[in-house]
Amino acid sequence: MSAVKTSVAPTSTNHVTVILDEPLQRGETVITEIQLRKPKAGELRGVSLVDVANLDVMALQKVLPRITQPILTTQDVNNLDLADLMALGAEVAYFLAKKADRNMVSPTA
């Protein structure tokens, strides 16, 4: 399987698609890209916003399954390539910024 450069394609201000460097294998299914949706407050329950902003792995393990398509399991998150985990985490942290401040903190700028 050849690696694809991690890239991020904004689909709207509330959704972004991340193309994985290292695709995930789930049974016979190969996941090559993951769409993230901006989380609502309730989807961040039980997670410190500081931990999410700091890309804490345990916080991302809780949040990513709630806001990804296809839905990632905790095991999927554990199996992500580090560069892919960082790309997904950076996008989640980016969603935490106010719209007016996003250009200053854009992970894709």
Structure overview:
This protein has about 110 residues and is of the alpha+beta class. Helix content is about 40%, strand content about 25%. It is built from five helices and four strands. The chain has helices at about 50-55, 55-65, 75-80, 80-95, 100-105, and strands at about 5-10, 15-25, 30-35, 70. Strands 1-2-3-4 form a four-stranded antiparallel β-sheet. It is globular, with a radius of gyration of 13 Å. About 20% of the residues are buried.
List keywords for this structure.
four-stranded antiparallel beta sheet, disordered N terminus, 109 residues, alpha+beta
Task: Map the helices and strands.
Layout: E1 7-10, E2 15-26, E3 29-37, H1 49-53, H2 57-67, E4 68-69, H3 74-79, H4 82-96, H5 102-105
Antiparallel strand pairs: 1-2, 2-3, 3-4
3D shape: globular
> What level of helicity do the residues show?
25-40%
Spatial strand order of the main sheet = 1-2-3-4
Distinct helical segment count: 5
Percentage of residues in DSSP E strands:
15-25%
For the biggest sheet, the summary is: 4 strands, antiparallel
Describe the structure in brief.
It is built from five helices and four strands; from the N terminus they run βββααβααα.
